[in-house]
Amino acid sequence: MKKVYTKNNLMMRFAAIILFLFSSMFYFGCNKDDVVPEPVVANFSEATVQNLETAIDNVLIQNSVPGCVVGIWMPNEGTFFTARGVCNTETEEEMSTACAFRIGSCTKMFVGIISLQLVEEGLLNLNAPLSDYIDPFYIPDSDQVTILDLCRMTSGELNFTFLPEFEAALLSDPYNTPNAIALTELACSLDTMIFEPGTSWQYSNTNTILMQLVIEEITGKSIQENIAERITTPLGLTRTYWPETGAIPAPYSHGYLLLDPSGESIDCSDWPPVWAGAAGQLVSTAEDMKVFIEALGKGELISPEMQMVQENGYEMGDGRAYGIYLGIDHGWLGHGGSIFGYTSTAYYLPGKDATIVVLANASITYDGHEAASVLFNAVAQIVTPENIPYQSVQD
Q1: Rounded to two decimals, what is the model's pTM?
Q2: For 170, phi and psi rounded to 5 degrees?
């Protein structure tokens, strides 16, 4: 029987869940001078496959995650591509590797690539203040916040997903929430800076929406048009798109908001993501994300010079950094994402020419980590024990 959500149930978990919306995991790769050997035909051993399947199934069971898709591509060692669990808890339909998911903050990597392409074209200066490009409403310290600050999360701008007004709007009617620009305008109107621009780091979806406005102002096109023309069409990503409504074309996985450790959840897969914007609105599949993250990691979308800029991140401590909408950690380069009902990870490891993509249909686990993060960490321990990523949690 389909569970019906109530305001009280949502409030029980909302305070914790909101801290993880669009949270990023910070991984990156090795020196560009490293030589990647020619790939050979290889398959993981039966023992490795069994260990991977067991690790994934344990995460799903221990955290009441209905299902996931996990892809591991290591040309010199093997390929592992599997769907586990179910994509619909009401019908018990099995998960498929073809299922589409909302990818949350993995969307930010697309914004980062477009930003660097505009720098290459001479249309954008990373060191210029935000006020040089847009002033549609009052933005705190817009003459001090640089484009680079927006892209590296060092602006100090207040995160709109932390606003009580955002929580109230979602709790009252998740099908009719304000759009991302309206929420960003609200956050900026409070005239509250978390820190002086460029002096610290804090993940803020407001940064990405401001960057969306910059891109749209410069190009005269919407962010979705830019994504299509500059990335998804050239790469042939036929199932990566910007949804205008809450509908996701089949085949897709339903997404679940976990309410308590007993496994009670609500299906929020049809909640319109208009409040996410460039910070996390895209839908994609594991196969499409493989193509994208490999193109990003191998420098196929920008010049080598821009690749160096992209990977020059703000140091996070514990060996982590955050570049131009790009996470950096233990050899991995990529990003993670969380949006109601879904978590995602997409990473490339240049030193081993390895790619891992994880898509899960539950927002977070009960230990405070994101479902996709826990899964990625679990499989990395098996296939890349020398490059185990940080298991991201936002305090």
Answers
A1: 0.90
A2: -70, -40
